[in-house]
Structure formats: structure tokens, C-alpha cells
Amino acid sequence: MGKILEYIEKSGNGKYICYKTKKLSLDSNDNDTIAYNYDDKPASEFKKSVFAEKDQNRQKTVQIDNTLIRNTLPIFRYFLDGSRHTYKVDDIAIGKKIFPIVAGQVIVGCCERKDRDTFKKFDIKSKLVIAMPDDFDDDSGGDNFCRHYCEGLNVDLQKLRFIQDKNINIDKILLYKTDGSEPNNDKDNYKNRAVAQIQAEMTDAEQLLVAELCAKNKMDDESWLIKDGSLEYNPRFSNLETAQWNNLRTNYQHVVGISKMFDPELLSDYEGNRLSQTIANLNPFERTKVYKYESAHSGTSFAVWYLRLRKGKFRETNFSDVVKCEVVLLKEEQLIDTDLINIISANLIREAYPTCYGADTRWANHLYPVFLTESFCKSHYISSNIILSLF
To answer: How far apart are CA 278 and CA 270, in angstroms?
Structure first.
């Protein structure tokens, strides 16, 4: 039994029993473009979508002009990506129940490109966390319990020389709910709740890093940020206070979310038809019209469009080189200037070159600086063997 599990049993004075079950990684790689397990609007709720751009012409697509692609000045200066690895490290008995213990590494990084010859780290946040059942906190101390327990655990870990040498600390203890408020209260569901807490820690860190950029006045009309993935955060899956989470939305005036994997039937077009067929038939360097989408999770409104990044007949499927683009609508009736949408789209097309062909199976959907940022973040992971040996 590793040092952490030993500490848990000793600190519990008989309240906790660790079973030394098999340790395994819970991560899976899904390189498909289409997200089948989405939790957005079901197709049966399709209605006519409303344009979110100022050009209200009733047309299905817009071609991005080659002259604009060649001559537009770069507007993207920052590139942000979040990543996490999770591990089932043991089962713990508390009272008459058995729960999984899940560990996680969380990495959120931001790279900065000042000019064509300078691409460097702006900031990186790295955390090592443990997700435990809320029954673990038998004094109902909440954050205070977790913080004090984490401090004691780290003091004990520092007795190991290799922990000191590698400067490893447990940054946070997270508690997942076991109160039966959700269906299917089996062990797998507890495991999923633990992973969700670690995922929430990652998405919170992404938003806080954007807030840090804003606080330092780093973003403006000539210095935008590309965030790898959707901007649709769910407040139910956050470890932040509600007021703090709500305030973070105001930081997204100069942020574009780019999703390589998306639900093509999330939206209908202005006629009420499914948008998936229009997306699949996009020509090279062509985009859909920009539509308003309101998140059922947070009530936040977004301007959403889909863009084909490349030309050629290499694509595996009709969605292989299409990305979903999102901008937060900070005001209820806000319309995004169509010229700005086209400038953003032209820049995104340029950011797709050079390609990362062969280095990533999703290369056709990748923007190269996002690929570099993602690679930079992954390079900061601690070896899984070292993580598992702590337990």
C-alpha cells in the first residue's frame, strides 16, 4: 500500500478501510469528430434559429474571400488548453458503504505568440487532486476539513525523499456527493461523480486563467484568445462559489472557443431545418451563418457558426476538417458584426497551417498553435507510474 492510502487509514483511527484494489487509468481517447454523448437540445425540439450576426440575409452559408484570408492581420495572440488525467486508485470502506478513490492530474496552460517568430509560455497551472466521497468528511467541515486534511497529508508525504526531490504535493481534496440525489447510485456512478469533480477543477482553472489575462489587460481588439473546446461551461459542475462563477462570463469579450468534436444537430437553420446537412456540405473556406444558441445549463447566450478549414479531397468524413466556433454574447440582444465574423474565420483558416499531420489523428480539425499549446500542456504531466506509486 502506498504512502497516501497508509495515511488515510491511520488518520481515520479505524473509520476508513482501504482495500488495495487494482489501480487503473480512467482516461480514454476519442478521436471522432462527432460527439454522440452530448447533452444539448434533442432533435425533437428543433425550431427556427435566430441569426446572431448583423447581416440578416437569408442564406445558408458564407464564403470567406481568399483575399481576406491572405491579407487579414493576425488577431490571435493567446491560446489556451485544459487537460486532465484521472486514475481509480482504490476502494475505501466508510461505515457500511464502499466508495472509489479517484486521483487526478489537472493541467491548464496558455501560450502567447507576439509575432511569427515568438511562441512561448504565458502561464501554466498544474494540480494534483484526490476525489473522495463526502462521507469521508465526517465532521461536515467542508472546505476547511479538506484543506486541513490536505496539509497533514502533504507533511506526511514530504518524509519521502523522492517526493521532496520531485516537489510533489497534493493540491486539493475534492468531495463528491453520495447522498442519493441522483439515480443509479452504484459504484460506477460514484466513480463518474469523482471524475466530474476533477473535470470541474480543470474547467474552473480555465476560466480563472482567462480572468487573469483580463485583469492584466492582455486582450483587446488586436489580441484575441483561442480556447481549445467549447465556452459552454455548466455551473452545476464547478467548484467555485456561484457569484464568482457568474462574474467570470464578463471576461470573454475577446475569446473564441474552437471545438474539434461537436454535435452537428445542436442547431437548426433559419428555416427550421437541421444544420447538420449544411455543415457536411460546406465548401473549403466556407462557413455557416452565425446563429444564437442559449445554453440550457447556464442561460448564457452564444454566437455559433461552423467553418471548413481546408481544401482538398483528403478528408475521411464530411466533418473531418470542420470546427465549431463560439463567441459569448454578453448582452441579450447583441449581434456580432459580420465583418468581424469573417475576419475571425479568415484568421482561423490561416491558423490551420502548417498542419500537425501524423502527430495527431485529429490533425484536419486542429489549429497549429492550439496543437502546440496542447502538446506543451501534456509535456508537464507527472508520470502515471509515479502518481500511482503514491497510493
So the answer is: 12
Cα(296)–Cα(258) distance, rounded to whole angstroms? 20
Q: What is the β-pairing status of strands 301-308 and 322-329?
A: antiparallel
Q: In the chain, what are the helix, strand and coil shares in percent, each to the nearest 5?
A: 30, 30, 40
Q: How far is CA 288 from the centre of its chain?
A: 24
Beta pairing, strands 97-115 & 118-133: antiparallel
- Spatial separation of the C-alpha atoms in residues 94 and 12, rounded to whole Å: 10
Do 227 and 206 form a contact (C-beta atoms < 8 A)?
yes
pLDDT, tens only, 298-324: 788 999 999 999 887 666 778 888 999
Mean pLDDT (whole number) for 328-336:
89
Q: Can you give the pLDDT at residue 44?
A: 40
AA letter at 177: K
Contact 258, 229 (CB under 8 A): yes
The rounded distance, in Å, linking the Cα atoms of 73 and 64 is 15
* Separation between Cα atoms, residue 35 and residue 286, nearest integer Å: 22
State pLDDT tens for residues 210-238.
999 999 999 999 999 999 999 999 888 89
Listed residue (67, 80, 40, 60) closest to 305, CA to CA: 60
**Chain length of the chain:** 391
What is the percent of the chain with per-residue pLDDT over 90, rounded to a whole number?
A: 57
Contact 274, 46 (CB under 8 A): yes
H-assigned helices in the chain: 3-12, 66-71, 143-157, 161-165, 187-215, 242-247, 276-280, 338-351, 368-378, 384-389
- Residue that the C-alpha cell 503514491 belongs to: 390
The Cα 38–Cα 57 span in angstroms is 30
Report the alpha-carbon distance of residue 145 to residue 383 in Å, rounded: 29
Strand 61-63 and strand 97-115: the pairing is unpaired
DSSP annotation of 312: S
pLDDT for residue 40: 46
- The predicted model scores a pTM of 0.90
pLDDT at 328 over 60: yes
User: Distance of CA 45 to CAs 232, 267, 274, 300, Å?
Assistant: 19, 10, 11, 19
**C-alpha cell belonging to residue 38:** 452530448
8 A C-beta contact, residue 211 and residue 187: no
Q: Provide the 3-class DSSP secondary structure of residue 307.
A: strand
- Higher pLDDT residue, 199 or 116? 199
